[in-house]
Amino acid sequence: MSLVRRIARPLLAAPFIVEGIRTAITPERATAVLPRSVVESADRTLHSTPVPDLVKVKDLLRVSGAVAAGAGVLYATGRSPRLAAAVLLATTTVGWAGRKRVWELKGAERMQELSSIVTDAGLLGGVLLAVVDHDGRPSLRYQAERFLERSQKNAEAKKRELEKAAGAARRGAEARAAQLAERVS
User: Helices (DSSP H) in 48-139: which residue ranges?
Assistant: First the structure.
């Protein structure tokens, strides 16, 4: 891993780890910014599913926060960085959607919220780049294509080799058959 990645990954992951831990510990903070009707609707939907009655939106937020913190740690340490970045992107965008109610705010509070949105968008952009970062290694698609090409070349070479051996065996069989035919006649 390059020096830049060693420094940049923990820096990019830090806000996600902190926010994930905060959400896992106090999910009420996340539900407080959501409209009450959304939380109640989500709770009703959960209770109409075969999921146990004990599961609530707060529990899902706790799990989401813990998953985001874990993915942040994985990304920061460079373990499965693309997968970890994809998980960060998924958990963050789900939690971020609908949280920012700028249209209800006025003045300095609105400007602060807009600044927060731009910061969050920048972090999401960084994570999106991390999802497609190959760290100098080829993508899985590229590796699969090369594997298929090598397999086809090997199969063609083996086919030629077998055809050559079959031709030699055929010629040998024809020669033996000719020898036997001479002996018989």
Answer: 57-77, 81-96, 107-132
Question: Where does residue 115 rank: exposed (0-12), middle (13-18), buried (19+ CB within 10 A)?
Answer: exposed
| Contacts (Cβ under 8 Å, ≥6 apart) of 16 | 68, 69, 71, 72, 75, 88, 92, 123, 127
With beta carbons less than 8 A apart as the criterion, state whether 87 and 95 touch.
no
Percent of the chain with pLDDT strictly greater than 90:
29
The length of the chain in residues reads: 185
The more confident residue out of 150 and 65 is 150
Give 40 or 106, the one with higher predicted confidence. Answer: 106
C-alpha gyration radius of the chain: 31
Ramachandran sector of residue 74 (left: φ over 0; alpha: ψ -120 to 50; beta: rest): alpha
State the sign of the Cα–Cα–Cα–Cα dihedral 67, 73, 77, 78.
positive
* Nearest partner of 75 among 141, 23, 14, 161, judged by Cα: 14
